[in-house]
Design a protein that fits this description.
The complex is a heterotrimer. By secondary structure, chain B is of the alpha/beta class. Chain B is built from 15 helices and 15 strands. Chain B is about 40% helix and about 15% strand. In chain B, α4 runs antiparallel to α13 and α7 crosses α8. The longest helix of chain B is centred in the last third of the chain and has 38 residues. The radius of gyration of chain B is 25 Å and the shape is globular. A seven-stranded mixed sheet of chain C has the order 1-7-6-5-4-2-3, with helices on both faces. Chain C starts with about 45 loop residues before the first helix and ends in a 7-residue tail after the last helix. Chains in contact: A-B, A-C, B-C. At the B-C interface, α1, α2, α3, α4 and α5 of B face α1, α2, α3, α4 and α5 of C.
Amino acid sequence: MVPEGLYYTKEHEWTKVAGDTATIGITDHAQEQLGEITFADLPAVGDKLSAGTEFASVESSKAASDVYSPIAGEVVEVNSALDAKPELINDDCYGQGWICKARITDKSGLDKLMDAKKYEDYLKGL
Amino acid sequence: MPFISNTEQQRKQMLDEIGLSMEQLFGDIPPELMCKDFNLPAGMTEQRVREHLSEIAAKNSINLTLFLGGGFYDHFIPAAVYSMISRSEFYTAYTPYQPELSQGTLQAIYEYQSVMCRLTDMEVSNASLYDGGTAMYEAMMMALRITGRNKVIIDDSVNPIYRVMIHSYTKNLSIELDQTHCIDGHANRRQIYEYLDDKTAAIIVQNPNFFGCIDDFTDLAEAAHKKGALLIVSCYPISLGILKTPGAMGADIVTGEGQSLGMPMSFGGPYLGFMTSRKQFVRQMPGRIVGQTKDRLGRRSFVLTLQPREQHIRRDKATSNICSNEALCAMTALVYLLLKGKQGLKETAQLCADKASYAFERLRAIPNVRPHFKTNKWFYNEFVLDLPIDAADAIAGLVEKGFAAGFPLSRYYDGMDKSILICVTEKRTKQQIGMFAEALESIL
Amino acid sequence: MKLVFEKSVPGRRAIEMVDSQLPSSINISPELLRDELADLPELSELDVVRHFTALSRMNFGVDTNFYPLGSCTMKYNPKVCERIASYPGFAHLHPLLPQLRMGGMLTQGALRILYEMDVLLREITGMAGFTMQPMAGAHGELTGIMIMAAYHRDKGNKKTTVLVPDSSHGTNPASAAIAGYKVVSVPSNEEGIMDIDELKKLLNDEVAGLMLTCPNTLGLFNPHIKEICDLVHSVDGLTYYDGANLNALVGKARPGDFGFDIVHVNLHKTFATPHGGGGPGAGPVGVTKKLTQYLPVSIVEKRDDGTYALVYDRPKSIGYIAPFYGNFAVILKAYVYILMLGKEGLRHVSENAVLNANYVRVKLRDYYKPAVDKKCMHECVVTPTKKMLDNNVHAFCIAKALIDKGFHPPTIYFPTIVKEAMMIEPTETESKETLDAFIEAMIEIAGLAVTDSEKLKQAPITTPVCRPDETAAAKNLDIACL
């Protein structure tokens, strides 16, 4: 089930936009590919994000995956709960397993992202 | 053919089952790329090869009494070390990727990591690197990653061989290397503080340094940390039987050459690069790391851990390219340290210091032989003397008399033509030291 | 099993270090000494020996079990090589002796071995000169890339990129990256070898070189290898041969003749030196004539009077990549191995390695899905069938089941371009009987995978531990007993 109302990337990140703020995480497909997540390398508040560029990474015991930013912006909050419980990304990737919140500096890139329907189709084609 | 099990008949049978000839098996190689001629000698029997190699070995002078160190030492090795690491269950295995089949190797490496942490007073250790020089290079790269900076300060009392290695490795990278010149055998604080700023990733020093002088780098650690930089200390593990530890000085990364822990000199290798650090930096460490965990039935188990740092998973983003390391040498160091134990290591370290101290007094009593350093009087098992003649000449003269007398420092340091670096380990006897002093006196 | 620290008994000793002739009085200022003794366990020699003997019994090695770990060439390690490396004439030789005046004369035997090994490896690989210094394959790769960089710097070339195939060992991109290059991956085609059209698209003036294993990690020889090298040369790029798979070619064909400029040789694979539970290895690097000037300091030369000398004056050299002459004892063991096998013996190595791999491939063809259904060189890659996967039996389960049959599993999940890969490299030293037993075990497991997959998921049951929790190991990090 791909939740409605979010934007998706081909690299399997999601972002939820509310006003100027974007919440970013990885999708269910991404967490399933990785297996049990053991560590999330988070950005720092104030880090500049540019669309399509890596800004964080998540690891399982035998794999690692970079997380690419869906948007251009600046990190305003990181999910520090992941430091102690990285498995939140496995358990609730669209909820408690979010990675960071960013203030969007350029909204023009949003229309290049996929909606739930398109992302679902994209997953089927993999 | 030696070491090939199948008989001619079996080979034929197997080719039949495959349905291809030997030529066809190699058929993807274009004929023009096959070797026309292969100019190698015919094979040798085991008996012949052993005779042959005995003859070659005899061309190496191993009967010199060694006062030569320079970071590579002639220590006594207990017989049980060789017996244990010669168990082929250890040495014919490879990297413990299948933990169920490698608990022996894995537990040993976990124990190795533990003793190296205890020895250096640090919190984490990797499973080994190639040697002390590449370990220093890896520590430098690790500091660059941790700090996100690109400037490194290194004092020239660090082993010159390691310093040239670091220069070679960084030639293609944009790293600023600032070298400071030690004063009277001590790392040059004034110069280091001049270079140290908020672009500095690390200060690299060594204890005991290349001249054998002992230092306490607590002040350097504090100064580095104030600027957000790290302190990297290279050390000689045997000395830690008595000397203040890098951990107690506040070092962030500790490296060194582990050869002295039970490995023969073997003309330069294989040796053991070790690295310990603080827990907060563990994800930036290079190389393999073994961790303890539990299996399905709750039994104590050991596995390779934090593997996503490594090349086989992270490829071009790995913390290092290292794959094969020096696992058997790490195991050697572990067996050695366990046989020595708490008291034995202290006694060994102390014997080296005592004998060096005795030799120093004995040799400086020779007319016109003087300590090189004027105010710095603390040394461990190596020291520098100034001779009335060129040191390289003196060393050549002493080879004739059966001694490898030391290392001529002019090879790496300007203005030290008459300076000789002399090393004494626990293997040297009072009698050998006396004969050495007489021989030296006779050629001056 | 107990940790060695749990076996410590206060006051127990294995070795006492005293010298009655010299008084003991540490002549060092107290503030430079450690406060407490290093907390090493206190054991008797017997305690230590029992501990390690017990540990050794929890290991598989080539001497105990068939070890077809793909890409690692786990062949038999001859005992004579160990014996010779322990000769005092080699083991007791201080590496700084040659740096004394006329010191080279004190180490003529050792220098001769380094020199002759250089000559032997030149002949085996078709290169013009070698450095013995790299201490492992990956270290050789880094050395090779540094040579590549020195060449381009010297020519004033502005090169930024190193190409590696998508099927490469992880060390290739890692080595290129830490030497300062951007890494670009070249895709394989459907036949499992490098796609030449894709390579052409990626070639431009920024390409410093290409790194390649040949045969590749699928065990396939690329018949277009010469064309690939020529293409890279056309943009003044250099070609790097990752020697991990040289066992397939030794005595038959030479990377120098294919057009490679830089080659590393894994002595611990092709030339039978022990893997040591992960190391030490040795990775000498050979280059073509135009690149010999960049080889590290020092190299050994043979003089007209028949003596051997180290040459340090090498102005174009990349410098020092190791403190001395490489892992000398490892080089020595490989040298002994090559002398014993000689010309004919080495040819038999590659022939039997390729024969054994193909025998396994053909015998398993009906039970597992080949990654590529064609003849292979020294190793073959197979995967579970769709039926097995539908039954939730993966390469991982098959590997664990093999353990209970007494075999070390193949390399699994590599190369990454093949899903569920199982990479089998039997090596030439194994007999048909061993291969038949392995094949029989694989076939039996294939049957269970369809009929009784639950049983496979319990494996292994014959080992001291079963499927340790690697996730917990990474999350609750315990990497030292303090």
